[in-house]
């Protein structure tokens, strides 16, 4: 096999809570799926709440430098009740996305047979959200003056550049073509209220669409999109949107397909200059952490996205198929984290 | 009856599409509900797409001045496929909300018995969203430079002031007390990503909560909130949030309670210095406009909110009850706009 001898160096950041429980299972599944096609070389990073509480480190230059030398990042989850909200998110998770210029946050949304949707008539749900990952309201730009007085004022600024938007939009059109389904891209924004950012996004859609005569596109306001996600989610093929709308819509979408326990994601550096990062959408779930009962499926599917990113499409598909079979057979049973992983491995 | 001789001057702006069909029905229902308790004096304003296409007027100083002299505004809907998206929204609807300093956009969300929710297990849904109405990302602040070049950049700025946030938050706590239910206010934001605005909102919550020892409060990230709206909407009592999150969440909430055809709203000027405005959440629905089949229920419920605003609680409750009975009896039948209104009037 011509791939023997190949290697992918993967920075592993289990992070906090159930992230530490699901990530090792994902590594086991990935290993089994690739066999000896490629060596997965894992480099562990002790980052997250424990490290922060121990020595105050979130993500220092040394860590960044070292992680930046790996080919990819496998992340579990960040967040811990002992650390004030925002510290780990901004200092670790968002810092990784921004430092490694992860332009596209790709979030496939699929209702697997056997999984119970909270919707009465979910239909066939299978779409992907391409969320811009490096700008918008996530830039951190803003200020808060006169704090504690009646004249206090705080601002947040959404930054939208042709550079940032175009690479996300191109990715979305490419993806619609590659998926070979409806071949449609739906841009979601709120152009009637956000005239400047809305116009830039529409300009880029117009421009990029010319290079994809085989892909159609339409536009939806974000509020209308939240409705369709509940009333007609099967209408979507590829959604492209900004960082904040993407955050909100993908959680709603995750709920609609039976819970974010099945929602994987990839934070993609589109030039491969820096590592891309693969992580489940769910958080660290402190309420169930340490019990060994977290569902590792979203993390395992994120592992499949990692393999697909490096061209190991067959290994990725094997994991996908094993997960689908496993879910169809077992979604209603309660199993331990390890049992789920073992059941999936057994089907590979 | 001591109220005889009283009068409410109401600026009526039917606007576009189905707004023009539902608004007259609401006026009929309101008239019947108040009887001779109070005179409803309607002043019609020809505003919306037709006017704009005819003479280019959206909302001029003269209109504003005149509407400002009325006690309240009853609005149908704005939006027309012949007018570029954003023109009517910003030039008319948002201009009214901002000019009349309508600080609170109140959106009750209730699943009426007989109405079919898209959720399998909706539970008892009955909460209200208090959406800040005059700032946030709706300020219009921002810019778009280098348009058409690879260096294009567009910004939007979210403005959050202690003044604006505090009046919305106080309204929310008052409402939780008045509703007398769970007595809980849930603040929704994205404090882990929006550090400046998030901190200001949290500061104001902390401060205001001290005046309401009988009301509890909690905090939810907007993405988590979109999940709970689908998986556990009955958990909410009063939600308070900013202008953009409020926009998105109330549409999702409307979908969850069976469609925004049942969702009323009030844009409240909390000092009564300017008129408050009452409008259904739904839009002008160009696809069904002119057919006489639009459901007037959301508009009629907005009329009830208007009456309640002026202290005519019993008339408002009569409409509420008539709507509930009507919906329970007829929600699954298809009726004309006029039939629905007649059926409701018959129950008053
Ligand atoms: C944890 C948080 C900063 C993050 C985000 O807002 O992007 C999360 O919600 C997500 O969607 O990955
Ligand atoms: C029409 C639009 C400007 C408006 C808004 O965004 O506020 C609408 O969606 C609403 O929720 O009332």
UniProtKB/TrEMBL annotation, chains A, B:
Pfam families per record: Iso_dh
Uppermost EC category: oxidoreductase
GO molecular function, one term: 3-isopropylmalate dehydrogenase activity
Keywords: Manganese, Metal-binding, NAD, Oxidoreductase
Domain named Isopropylmalate dehydrogenase-like: residues: 9-344
Cofactors required: Mg(2+); Mn(2+)
Family matches, as InterPro entries: ICDH/IPMDH, IsoPropMal-DH-like_dom
Its EC number(s): 1.1.1.85
Top-level taxon of origin: Bacteria
The protein, known as: 3-isopropylmalate dehydrogenase
